[in-house]
Protein: T9SS type A sorting domain-containing protein
Amino acid sequence: MNVLPTYSGYRKLALAIALAMPGLVLAQEVAPAAQVLASFAVKARAQGHLTEADVANPTVTSSYTDASTGLTHTYLQQRVNGLTVFNANGAVHTDASGKVVYFNQDFLAGAAAVAPSATPGLTPEQAVGAAAKGLSLPMPVALQRVTEGRVADGIVFNKGGISEENIPVRLMYLRVDNKLVLVWNVTIAQLDQQHYWNARVDAQTGRLLDRNDYTVSEQTTFRQHVMQEQARRKLVPTTAAIALDAKAAKALKNAKGAKGTTGVANSMTVIPVPFESPDLSPRVVVPFSSANPLYSPYGWQVGDTRAPSAFYADAYSLLSSGKQLTRGNNVAAYDDNATTVTGNGNVASTTNSPDGGANRDFDFAFNQPLGPRDPGNLAAGITNLFYWNNMLHDVMMSKGFDEVSGNFQYKNIGTQGLGNDFVRAESQDGSGRNNANFSTPVDGSNGRMQMYLFDNTGANALTVTGAASAAGSYRFASVSFGPRLTKRPLTGRLVLVNDGVSADGGDHGCASPFVNAAAVAGNIAFIQRGGCPQLTTLNPRATNAFATKVKRAQDNGATSVIVFDSLGTTTNLVNFGGTDTVGIRIPAIFISGADGFRLRSAILAGATLNATATLGADFDGSFDNGVVSHEFGHGISNRLTGGPANSSCLNSATGNQTMGEGWSDFFALWMTTRPGEDGATNRYMATYDNGDPYAVGPGFRRKPYSTNFAQNNYTYAQLGTATGRFQETHDVGEVWATVLWDLNWQFIYRYGYNADFFSATGGNNKALKLVLDGCKLQVCNPGFLDGRDGLLRADSLTNRAANAGLIWNVFARRGMGYSAVQGNRVNGAPLVTGIVQAFDLPPGTPAIALSSKNGATAGNALEAYPNPAQNVLTVRTQLTSTVPMQVDMLDLLGKTVLRAVPVPAGQMQQSGVELNTSRLASGIYIVRVTTSGGTYSTKVSVQH
Structure:
């Protein structure tokens, strides 16, 4: 955690910037730095109706020069009464000559007048206790100061028995609407590794007022499975693999017992970039010489001859162990499955990483059916995780996520940026399941990636015996609370509950005690999902209702619970997340509505059914390279947005982390794009973890990523508070990732695809570089249109606006055009509030043809899809017109075969018009659109 000094006056602030730029001559830096702060003050006052006092003496959180663009990025926070204002941010970006080329701020006007006294009522020690109480954590024990300082600068306490890291505490102001509140900012890395809190408590009362989480997790409630006729992988039950767990731990101490057969020195056997999982590529030998010498000059692994001797001892406690482990300057990868309660996070251990031996041969036998705790599988997964984190480091550094901007390295190459913050990549983490997360504290503190095990729902089997109408094998999904089936088996008689109050005969379990409590006792409680609106006012089918039902069944003596979906026609399975906060001690599973109502009918007909659940072998998230890339992506977007010393600029508490989810999906898709693919190809997130066929999905998201509007028709209006609109973090992130994915492919169509990810050429490389540059330029806590504007500004500054028209057309196509309205993005307003989509372009920007293949023909700025069409063809365009557009379909002889009623330009831009092609003969046709500005056409195919 950085401790920021307090200064007064521009000259001292200039000195702070100069000191943050080692290697520069101080006398030469003072004047330009003073000019930067002076320019900020002038522009901020003109833009925000601020007083001179409002912009005087801001805190410089970070300032650095980007070597790839020549731009200097200076990030600021407002300061009042000598204290930083947490959520009042600004930035000024200058070129090599010192000219301000971009600027933003959201300082509070008249701040001094609404700021209370800077004298706190609580001591820093009391603030830690108040934060712990507000976060529902234990009270600190034996709390002691380890670093003294002024309260405005920060004081550091020991871990106090409640944090994985020392606890920084700092006095500051928090902006609440148009007032300021004096607060203590307290940072606690929760022991269960599920949260890394940066919390603000009232400095007078101790009440928790605000918090943001440096840990970004995936929502397991959105992990859905579409049941297949046959399991995609034929795997032995986990019960057979569990016995190997003790062997796995032993094998990592002597990895030779899990060795493969290649015997290639100085290499790893992994799923190589850009392949997403073992479903797409066999494992191959990758030499350690693959480490890019420009971005990893010390190599990837501690035993590399390029690594300075013994400088890893402090970081990894290797001492004289003589082991060659999956540890290096960029990442330490290790097994963290030791406990299912907290995970051990023990990066210093020399026994929880595979040992490549004296030859550094990291080849380990991989046999998926044996389960993830098989010694070879465990070592192979950790090695794969190590390789991908290193590749991500090098590739992203080549595009501008470097030392000075806050990347993850133990020892920096130069003198800029802070080191000692390699990624702790924790494989098979024991603190959760069916999930993954990444923690991004500020530069100089470790990033932490936690990859979990995932249920193999396709191989989970619920065996039911009894009546012939119900007997058979059924798929099921597990839940993240309560005991695992490996510890408490689910077996016994199925008893349909009767709560006496809910519909459908009372089988929803909405009240306790059950009418048939005596029958439920000692058996499996069979409960229908939903039907209990009193459990949640927002969603009767929500996860917390599920946990409450399980607890009620437990209270009625049930040995276990099976919940079936209330939608009887569905075959979807959901892995319910959530933390057990209600004392659940019995196992529970979830089955589909189609299966559940089949079993229910047999029970209601008088049948006696008995059931036994058997788990399939878990999937290891360390082999899903898309998810690994997604998690690493959170570190990128959090360090770049608002500068490396401020990891609170994608604040999940205000809804802005939704864009972080979008960037992470984009990075994952980008890293796993293979030569020969096309933008219209359906791409999915986490098909391996989800147990889905790669080309079929659905993965973790609601729709595939595709430039084909017939497959993914998301627009800006998908966000909002109306029924059916997206508000959840990952849902909203899908929309942002969709438009970034469109942009990536338009760049590829314009500049080509380059399989060399370190190159500056190729549309894919240019697009990634633009996205990273945009993150550096955009405002703190951005909205979608802020993100768009950051990309436009980056293109203007680095490419002389060569792609501005293309960027505008891509965003306009998805409803983020010139007249779109973002709504309020500050003071806690979620991103989904007050948005208005628009499909227009800035005056003077022409509508251009967005190239497309395999599903949508786009010519003269027209889209016609699907192509080939069968019964319905949708025609859409971003063209403008002062009169309604006439849409016709002609055969090759020029005869009009279909004509739509004239369509307003707004409708054509938003949803287009549908043409009924069911009566047309198969063949080639021409779609013609007549506007006030001219006539445009494109060819389409109809096939029946």
